[in-house]
Specification:
Layout (H helix, E strand, L loop, with lengths): L2 E14 L3 E7 L13 E6 L7 E7 L10 E2 L4 E8 L5 E8 L3 E3 L2 E3 L4 E6 L1 E2 L5 E2 L9 E5 L3 E10 L8 E11 L8 E13 L1
Antiparallel strand pairs: 1-16, 2-4, 3-6, 5-15, 6-15, 7-14, 7-16, 8-9, 10-13, 10-15, 11-12
């Protein structure tokens, strides 16, 4: 049986009125509960309770489209938990089917990169290098459509215990396009899957 759980959402909003605003939205409770002895997978992104967290990118008027990268103002915590047989492959994917849009104007998600690292997120929690898995990865350019793999790892559970992996996600807007003024919004859905 193929297991799939989608919980994390990431949306982007950009305002270009002399400046560009991109906003990342992430939602999912950062607690993964898999009852002892049961097989399962889970994903937590950002704040608890289904809160939608926002990461914004602001591009000054004089820099719009210059290729000067703009870092997001927040980082987001990501955790994946699995209680599955050892060496079961687990994939974390991001779906970016539609571009960021402001009316008829668009910005492709290929303008957004994702980087995973250890540390303390400004939203959702902390991930230390003593914790297993994920941690440092990327940068990965989003925009791969449905099912873009951002990380893959084999479950390495000990004595039937749950295996978990975490990362602190940071986002960067490439700023390579001279886009029209407006507020641009889009969505990325994070999913964890295992066979």
């Amino acid at each position: 049986m193929h297991r799939r759980l989608t919980k994390g959402l990431f949306a982007t909003k950009a305002v270009v009125a002399g400046a560009v605003w991109l906003t990342v939205q992430a939602s999912a409770a950062p607690v993964i509960i898999i009852p002892p002895g049961e097989r399962g997978i889970g994903i937590a992104v950002g704040s608890a309770g289904g809160t939608i967290d926002l990461v914004s990118f602001s591009v000054p008027t004089a820099q719009v489209g210059t290729g000067v990268p703009i870092a997001g103002d927040k980082t987001i915590y990501l955790e994946v938990g699995a209680e599955l047989p050892n060496n079961t492959p687990v994939l974390v994917t991001a779906d970016t089917v539609l571009p960021l849009a402001a009316g008829v104007n668009t910005i492709p998600f290929s303008e957004i990169t994702l980087l995973g690292s250890f540390g303390t997120a400004t939203v959702g929690g902390s991930c230390t290098s003593s914790q297993p898995g994920l941690g440092n990865f990327g940068p990965i350019t989003l925009g791969g459509g449905a099912g873009q793999i951002i990380y893959a790892f084999p479950v390495n559970a000990f004595n039937g215990q749950r295996d978990s992996a975490c990362s602190v996600l940071s986002f960067t807007y490439a700023n390579t396009q001279n886009v029209a003024a407006g507020t641009y919004s889009g969505r990325v859905r994070f999913t964890v899957t295992a066979p």
